[in-house]
Design goal:
Rossmann fold; alpha/beta; 6-stranded parallel beta sheet; 3-stranded antiparallel beta sheet; globular
Length: about 240
């Protein structure tokens, strides 16, 4: 991940959120001007949530913005662990986005049917040069084990290259997930990685430092677009100490 990569370190999560929301709006407006639409895959988790809440207040062309999800837990849409529910409560319920522009991963009783339905949704996206769906932006968090979306260490999904979305059983969490795969992540025009908190400091120091072992899922990204990291000082402090 050496090409087209940059990172910024902010004093705290509040400043990180403000900058990430501003960048989200810039990319949305640029994409709408260039292609008349903005297709973004959203992340779950505690750090992206206040970004969505901040976007409530902004004057965006929601008629041309399309929301998707990078991954989803195998739970109903109204479950507290649902990424869709989080985004709906933090953003969708507060902005005039048409329901037709909201593309959740509909969790069905059979997880493979869930995967196939979402694959069909992604078929409507513009294709990159590698033939995979091309998002204008994919938002990602990074776990303290280096996972992104539901691509966890030692997961079978890490080696999937022939489909944009798969189901995966996460043994350490004893749960099924549906997740985008590397070919889609690597096709996106922009990847925005949001990382906050001291628990993330060791993995950030290795991923953005001198570690070349590529032991973490996030290190296996090989994008054709641009990666932008947004870190708070707590997450970046070991990186700064080693630089």
């Amino acid at each position: 991940m050496k090409s087209q990569q940059s990172y910024q370190v902010f004093l705290d999560r509040e400043q990180l959120v403000r900058a990430a929301a501003q960048r989200w709006m810039e990319l949305a407006n640029e994409s709408i001007r260039a292609r008349n639409s903005f297709h973004v895959a959203l992340a779950g988790g505690a750090t992206p949530k206040p970004v969505y809440e901040r976007l409530q207040r902004e004057n965006l062309d929601w008629d041309r913005i399309h929301l998707y999800w990078g991954d989803e837990r195998d739970v109903p849409a109204d479950h507290p662990d649902s990424n869709y529910r989080m985004v709906r409560e933090a953003l969708i319920d507060h902005v005039p986005i048409p329901e037709a522009n909201v593309h959740p991963i509909h969790v069905l009783p059979d997880i493979e049917t869930t995967v196939e339905e979402y694959r069909q949704v992604l078929d409507n996206l513009h294709r990159g040069t590698n033939g995979h769906p091309c998002f204008d932006l994919i938002m990602l968090g990074v776990g303290d084990d280096g996972h992104i979306v539901s691509l966890f260490p030692e997961s079978s999904a890490l080696t999937v290259t022939n489909t944009p979305v798969v189901s995966v059983y996460v043994e350490k969490l004893n749960s099924w997930r549906v997740t985008l795969t590397y070919p889609v992540l690597n096709t996106a025009r922009y990847l925005m990685l949001l990382v906050s908190g001291e628990a993330k400091a060791p993995v950030i120091a290795r991923v953005l430092g001198s570690d070349t072992e590529r032991r973490y899922p996030v290190q296996k990204l090989a994008p054709s677009g641009r990666i932008e990291w947004y870190l708070d000082e707590a997450a970046a402090h070991e990186l700064q100490e080693s630089s």
